[in-house]
């Protein structure tokens, strides 16, 4: 059969080009794979969910609690279908797997990027792939957020209102942008079909295209080689080929990963839509976005109130906190490969401690994100008596600058300490074993 | 590069293809733009989307009691959420909840506690006061603070003081919550005019004024 296929499809060329691709043997290289497996699980569970989901916010009678004929219990069709999905055999489980995988996909992508950053794998020639990776991260988050809205319970409704408000806060064009994006004034009659289109067609399409480009570039440019490859065979690609050695490893990883997600989903419930109920004007206490957007939420919570009128447009705290600040953070991340001036191609993953400034800057950046995320818990910190209304903003602002600074200089100090110890060690070794040279 | 450039009096194949492709892109782009233009549907100002109007009766917004007329005895220093209920085109009652920004917050404080900048003439005996319940920051519904110091928005912890005209006492909101003039008509609380200031989502007085005008024109 191989020959039959080969004569028609030139399998042997495919084999040489793609199937023999060498994969480095190091567990940190599994992070990208986990992100990819998440995407696959998300698409599969998403298709199953789409079969039973009704993308509409028109009101229908709640079949679980129809009310009386003169006063029927009306709820949005999307929420009703989410209740029905929960009532299906394994329906709730399906929703949980979808939700958990989405969270893990973002987490895996973030850790994958951390690996790339700290080992310098974004350097020439891989800058383009860093940028594609950034786009993947942004679109993954957008896909997750639109998915958040689809059950259309009260939580989703309140979230959507804030997202609409943020879109509308763009100066000059905001109101038009928000209405065009969300099918009219909030809550437009077609808002759920619109977001459904984004979540199941537009954004996954973008994600798949970007993922394809990401992986083609990775195959073309090859993985960065781990340090051991330098010792084993300098300037040669070291690793196990995709077919057949890496394939069983990947399959095993995929199955283990799926098993862990199913285990999570079996025991840890997510987003109980019954608890929140259909959309209403009752606010939800402690409403928060998912963890990966908590930093934006924190920025909004601690930014002081201000309004600047400029050429008929309004620049307010909401626009700065939810759009300008995240854009600056993302631009800083986009700019990472441009800060590297090396002209040579980079083959080997670097030891982070050999690049203390990069390491320290990365740690400080993450520390700033964490402080902003903690700032998202401002109401809880106040309720718990740790901060009070008067000092909360001041303290959180000071921490926002202080903690990253401490992290930066702390990391530099520790790395310097390690280096001194290492040098001392080498001197001693040199003193006691001159025969080695 | 050839040394001799062939002079062709007629249109070359490359030129033709380029022009054809350019034309296709232009026409396609324009038609795509027209499709995108329809992404923003026309807004129809129906009665249920109008803001609280003069003569509207205030009814409960809480799910279990929705549509029931609010009695004075039910009000206290704890927030009570209300919808304005007006008349539809056929004269039947219409709860104006088509626009969720119409949600109202009602309070009743002992005499003397409501102070400026609250507009006392727009309250009932300086005791009952109504505000827009939509945070001027990101448009969430504001609730009583669990600290017992006025109102707090659960979204980004904006704080307001309902005894002082719902001015901002903390957090990111840029403006006070708009006060709604109310009066007592028998047992019912009735709206006596438009909001005294522009409510969420308006960011410019002129927009709010023109919206008020649009509403009045349609009702006339």
Automatic annotation (TrEMBL), chain A:
Where it mainly occurs, coarsely classed, is membrane
Where does the record place it?
Membrane
Q: Please, one GO biological process term?
A: respiratory electron transport chain
Residues in Cytochrome b/b6 C-terminal region profile domain copies = 229-417
Any Pfam family: Cytochrom_B_N_2
An annotated Gene Ontology molecular function: electron transfer activity
Keywords (A to Z) from UniProt: Electron transport, Heme, Iron, Membrane, Metal-binding, Transmembrane, Transmembrane helix, Transport
Q: Where do the Cytochrome b/b6 N-terminal region profile domain residues begin and end?
A: 1-227
GO CC, sorted alphabetically, is: membrane
**Source taxon at top rank:** Bacteria
Membrane-crossing residue ranges in chain numbering: 29-53, 97-118, 130-150, 162-183, 195-219, 249-270, 291-311, 317-336, 357-375, 395-415
Membrane topology is:
Multi-pass membrane protein
The answer on whether this UniProt entry bears the keyword Heme reads yes
Q: Which PANTHER family match?
A: CYTOCHROME B (PTHR19271:SF16)
Question: What is the name of this protein?
Answer: Menaquinol-cytochrome C reductase
Species for this entry? Deinococcus puniceus
UniProtKB/TrEMBL annotation, chain B:
MF (Gene Ontology)? 2 iron, 2 sulfur cluster binding; metal ion binding
Which top-rank group of organisms is this from?
Answer: Bacteria
Q: Which UniProt keywords apply?
A: 2Fe-2S, Disulfide bond, Iron, Iron-sulfur, Metal-binding
In terms of PROSITE patterns, this protein maps to:
RIESKE (PS51296), TAT (PS51318)
Q: Does the keyword Metal-binding apply?
A: yes
**Entry annotated with the keyword Iron:** yes
Tell me which residues make up the Rieske domain. 101-191
Q: Which Pfam families match?
A: Rieske (PF00355)
The UniProt entry, under InterPro entries, shows: Rieske_2Fe-2S, Rieske_2Fe-2S_sf, Rieske_Fe-S_prot, TAT_signal
Q: What is this protein called?
A: Cytochrome complex iron-sulfur subunit
Q: What is the lineage of its organism?
A: Bacteria, Thermotogati, Deinococcota, Deinococci, Deinococcales
